[in-house]
Amino acid sequence: MMLRGADIAAVFFDLDGTLVDSAPDMVVAMERLRAERGEPAADMSVIGHVVSKGGRAMIRRGFPHADDALVETLLPRFLELYAGEIATHTRTYPGVDALLDELETRAIPWGVVTNKPGWLARALLHELTLAHRCAALVTGDCLNKRKPDPEPLLHACALARVEPARSIYVGDDARDIEAGRRAGMSTVAAAWGYLNGEDPLGWSADRVVAQPSELLATLGIGVGP
Questions:
Q1: Which of 84, 100, 134 is the last residue of a domain?
Q2: Is 201 a member of any domain?
Q3: Rounded CA gap, 181 and 217, in Å?
Q4: Angle CA(25)–CA(45)–CA(174) in degrees, nearest 5?
Q5: What dihedral do alpha carbons 114, 200, 213, 100 form, nearest 10°?
Q6: Residues 59 and 66 sit within 8 Å (Cβ to Cβ)
Q7: Does residue 74 sit in the same domain as residue 110?
Q8: 14, 16, 21, 176: which one is catalytic?
Q9: Catalytic site includes residue 43
Q10: Cβ distance 178 to 153 under 8 Å?
Q11: Tell me: the pLDDT tens digits for 66-78?
C-alpha cells in the first residue's frame, strides 16, 4: 500500500536519472575517452539511456565491440574523466528543487541511495549544494551489497532514524523498485529518468510519476501550509 500524507516519515531518491540529469557530463567524458583511444567521433547520446545501469553499461555503449577485459580497463579512466567535470552540465531535474524545498518545509527528511561510487556521489552533491541538506547518503561502495539488494535502503533509513515501512523510495530503474519493495518501503518509479526503453509500469512500483512536479501530489503532501 502506498504511503501518503502524514504517514510519510522520509523520502529517499536514486541519484542519476531521478534527482539529477547527469548524462550530459557522462557523454562528454565518453567522447574524450574515445578520442584518447583513437576512436572516431560518433553519436554518444546513446550513453544517456543507460546511465542508471552503471559505468560498465555506459562503456559498452561507448565501445560496442569491447570485451569484458577492455571494459574493466577503460572504466577507471572513464570515471576519472567524468570526475574532472562532474557538474559542468549536470543539473537537478525541473521541479526537483521545489520538491526538496517543500519536503524540508514540512520537516520530512530526504536522502539519496545510489549505486554510484561514493567519491563521485559526494562530489556531485557538493557541487550542486545538496550535500548538507541530505539526511542520508548511501553509495555503491558503502556496504558489501548494492541495489537491488534492500540493505542500502535499510541502512539509509537507519541513518535518517526512520522506519522503512514509513518511507518512500523513488528511482528510475527496475532495481530501485525491487530494492524498495524488498526493504518494505513504498516505491515510486520516476518515469522522467533514464529508462533505456523500459516501461516502468512493468516494475510493480506503487506509483509511476511522469514528472518531479507531480510527486508531492502523488504523496498526498500538497503544496503550501
A1: 84
A2: yes
A3: 21
A4: 85
A5: -20
A6: yes
A7: no
A8: 14
A9: no
A10: no
A11: 999 999 999 999 9
Report d(CA 75, CA 87) in Å as an integer: 19
Question: Exposed, middle or buried: residue 45 (CB in 10 Å: 0-12, 13-18, 19+)?
Answer: exposed
Same domain, 103 and 200: yes
Q: How confident is the model at residue 224 (pLDDT cuts 50, 70, 90)?
A: very low
C-alpha cell at 31: 567522447
The whole-model pTM stands at 0.94
- pLDDT tens per residue across span 28-80: 999 999 999 999 988 888 898 899 889 999 999 999 999 999 999 999 999 99
Which residues form the domain of 66?
23-84
SS3 call for 182: helix
Burial label for 172, CB within 10 Å (0-12, 13-18, 19+), is buried
For 132, other C-beta atoms within 10 Å of its C-beta total 7
- Give the C-alpha separation, 154 to 222, whole Å: 27
